[in-house]
């Protein structure tokens, strides 16, 4: 656990970068520091590995003041990933990753073996091991940066905007993979970003900072979206926080109807002819499109995208319903077979129900 106790930083020119920051970053969790430019996120991160010394307060790792340990020893237990990866340009990928193990005295072969293992962990093909950083894409470089930070198996990872130098699609895949890696390695992570969507996607806890390094709110993502502490946090979260909080509510409480499913080549039953729409499925149960029983022979209407009935959120179900011209969402199982359909109206009722339950829980 990393504990900030009333930490402040005033730079020599008088800039108040961080003011009275107190928070606890729990073990094996991702704590995100988010806020507008200049609010002291990087300063806070760099105080944790003593690249910057606080002007006041204390930082503790597992209860011990970080000033009581030699800096080199402290940093050995802390991996650091920065924007643009910060790789050594004249070292190959494998050599970059092996930097710290080599410094710690690991022999060349063992260090290379570890590099290759880490490349696999972060989703890099090992054929890239002997390339130089400039021969990699931005996303690949970021992965090398993460692998290098993990190389000495530190308990703590500090990550400063690690995914911000790549395009949104690569960024999303880096985020997803990062979450998978974290599920495996369970590090205590402090992650800086200015992007609230990234914070909500990856954070277990989110610290929203405002100008001058003041902590505006420290909460889990769902709580942040449901109960922003003040107008600043609310504005920072953006206009669609109502829809985004549905990401944290499971869709498995939705009542999926199965009477609207009809197999290809099978005549609809009498009761089905009363329904406005029927979902045509193939022999294996995969959705093919919507048909109108009153207009036999018309081409099926595409379903848009389905949602995973067991594990997707209400947000995914709602999105599927609003994207489809029929206003119905198709729920599928892990094999992509339709398990039922649900209307926008029923999803809206489930949202109201979830809202009421969360108000009652307060
Ligand atoms: N070495 C320094 N000397 C003086 N002022 C500094 C120094 N480093 C940072 N600052 C100032 O401290 C404040 C906080 O900077 P910091 O880099 O911690 O913010 P940030 O939230 O990480 O910003 P960004 O999102 O733009 O990277 C800013 O006003 C910045 O100009």
Automatic annotation (TrEMBL):
Q: Pfam families this protein is in?
A: ABC_tran
Q: What GO terms are given for molecular function? A: ABC-type quaternary ammonium compound transporting activity; ATP binding; ATP hydrolysis activity
Superkingdom classification of source = Bacteria
Q: What class of enzyme is it?
A: translocase
Where in the numbering of this chain does the ABC transporter domain appear?
2-237
InterPro entries, sorted: AAA+_ATPase, ABC_transporter-like_ATP-bd, ABC_transporter-like_CS, P-loop_NTPase
Q: What is its EC number?
A: 7.6.2.9
- Keywords on record: ATP-binding, Nucleotide-binding, Transport
Mind telling me which PROSITE patterns this protein's record contains? Answer: ABC_TRANSPORTER_1 (PS00211), ABC_TRANSPORTER_2 (PS50893)
Q: Which family does it belong to?
A: Belongs to the ABC transporter superfamily.
Q: What is this protein called?
A: ABC-type quaternary amine transporter
Organism for this UniProt entry: Actinospica acidithermotolerans
């Amino acid at each position: 656990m990393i504990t900030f106790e009333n930490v402040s930083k005033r730079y020599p020119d008088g800039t108040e970068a961080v003011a009275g920051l107190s928070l606890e970053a729990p073990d094996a969790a991702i704590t995100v520091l988010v806020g507008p430019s200049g609010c002291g996120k990087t300063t806070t991160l760099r105080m944790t590995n003593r690249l910057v010394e606080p002007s006041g307060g204390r930082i503790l790792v597992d209860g011990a003041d970080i000033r009581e340990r030699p800096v080199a020893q402290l940093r050995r237990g802390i991996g650091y990933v920065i924007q643009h990866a910060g790789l050594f340009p004249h070292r190959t990928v494998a050599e970059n990753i092996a930097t710290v193990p080599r410094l710690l005295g690991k022999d060349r072969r063992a260090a290379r073996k570890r590099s290759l293992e880490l490349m696999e962990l972060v989703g890099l093909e090992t054929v890239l091991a002997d390339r130089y950083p400039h021969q990699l894409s931005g996303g690949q470089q970021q992965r090398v940066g993460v692998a290098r930070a993990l190389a000495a198996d530190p308990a703590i990872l500090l990550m400063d905007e690690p995914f911000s130098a790549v395009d949104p699609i690569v960024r999303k895949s880096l985020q997803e993979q990062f979450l998978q890696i974290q599920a495996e390695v369970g590090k205590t992570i402090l992650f800086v970003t200015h992007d609230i969507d990234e914070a909500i996607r990856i954070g277990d806890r989110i610290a929203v900072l405002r100008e001058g390094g003041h902590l505006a709110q420290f909460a889990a993502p769902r709580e942040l979206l449901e109960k922003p502490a003040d107008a600043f946090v609310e504005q920072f979260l953006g206009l669609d926080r109502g829809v985004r909080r549905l990401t944290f509510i499971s869709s498995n409480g939705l009542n999926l109807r199965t009477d609207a499913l009809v197999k290809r080549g099978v005549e609809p039953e009498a009761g089905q002819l009363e329904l406005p729409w029927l979902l045509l499925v193939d022999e294996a149960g995969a959705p093919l499109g919507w048909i109108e029983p009153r207009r036999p022979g018309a081409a099926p209407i595409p379903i848009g995208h389905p949602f995973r009935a067991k594990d997707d959120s209400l947000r995914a179900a709602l999105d599927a319903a609003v994207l489809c011209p029929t206003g119905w969402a198709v729920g599928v199982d892990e094999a992509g077979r339709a398990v039922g359909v649900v209307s926008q109206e029923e999803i809206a009722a489930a949202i109201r129900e979830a809202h009421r339950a969360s108000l009652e829980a307060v």
